[in-house]
Description:
Blueprint (H helix, E strand, L loop, with lengths): L2 H17 L7 H25 L3 H4 L3 H11 L15 H5 L4 H11 L1 H9 L5 H21 L3 H4 L14 H13 L18 H14 L11 H11 L3
Helix pairs in contact: 8-11
Amino acid sequence: xxxxxxxxxxxxxxxxxxxxxxxxxxxxxxxxxxxxxxxxxxxxxxxxxxxxxxxxxxxxxxxxxxxxxxxxxxxxxxxxxxxxxxxxxxxxxxxxxxxxxxxxxxxxxxxxxxxxxxxxxxxxxxxxxxxxxxxxxxxxxxxxxxxxxxxxxxxxxxxxxxxxxxxxxxxxxxxxxxxxxxxxxxxxxxxxxxxxxxxxxxxxxxxxxxxxxxxxxxxxxxxxxxxxxxxxxx
Length: 234
């Protein structure tokens, strides 16, 4: 009989083995093997996932290292009196499993931008798209109530009596108005694009019009500018 003729019979035997393997191996052995395989798969997946959640991975491409990471150097999140640092994933990757997976899937398009389109390959290209990139992050943080900020900073645990008068007053107004961190802290770690406040208001208006967030009063440009001058030492 030719190899071609015997192939269907071989495939049937393989299928029968896969469909009812307990005829050869005990059910207990199969359960143990399946559990071990699951542990190895999950451990490998989790390890690989966490490797992409490190600052060193985030800045491994020159676009990030030469632009946003350079701006981050010396910021309050990188160097401060308490020594507590917020790195790239702390601010840009959710900690919750579901949102984290969605964020990773969306971030996969950055591979296309790095290897194919090279959309921010040079400082000039990055500057051209800065407002668009910033708006994407503002939208995300406005939609999730600045969750990544609140992982470390939460109104519920703030003692306003221990804050400077201006900070305490600003935080109380924000709390009373139902505002979120990104409403006032757009430039806390990175340079702001020109006319950023107009674009930020556009982001807020779009989310309000789609019912993603409740309507709120327009942002006070003078208030935000004064705050940014204060935290930047201006």
